[in-house]
Amino acid sequence: MQGTCNWKDCSEDRAGNSKYCWHHRAEARKNWKNSIEKKSQDRKQRYANFDRVWNKACRLAREESDKCVPTPMTVVENQDPLDDNSPLKKAWFVRSGVCGYAWLVVRPGNSSFAKWMRKNKDSRQAYHGGEHWSCPLRIQSMEIQIAYIHEFVRVLESELKDIKVYSMNRMD
Questions:
Q1: Neighbouring C-beta atoms of residue 86, cutoff 10 Å
Q2: Phi and psi at residue 46, to the nearest 5°
Q3: Domain segments of the chain: what residues?
Q4: Half-sphere exposure at residue 119, Cβ-oriented, CA atoms within 13 angstroms
Q5: Per-residue pLDDT tens digits for 93-126
């Protein structure tokens, strides 16, 4: 039994394995192709917006990290490594402060922006869900990386409303 066309107010027989009659089958296919094209155009527009926001975030985060002045630290080596009260053997002044790194996590990981990041910005799946992106600054100063990531997160949160962005860091 073939049945009748699924087009509204049509009682003609279906064409082959199609849900529609011969006349409406071509029209349904045309509508389907148009919807695919519209989705493609919407995606291109959305991705162009993501690229614009990303470039703005990179620029502002770089400016913020350039303004950051890390708190210097002194690293010491005691004569007896097991006794902190033993005399100092050697000391080093570290102008860039503590070592560490910073990253951001975008949630949900299946959002359009997270998928775009994975495809275009070398991000990866975060351990506890979402999409993970590391600070691109190739320096050891944790404070400078934190300044970069905090500004990056601020820009993303202000521009993209359908995602949550978290900044994270760890001292080495």
A1: 11
A2: -65, -45
A3: 47-71+97-171
A4: 10
A5: 999 999 999 999 999 999 999 999 999 998 999 9
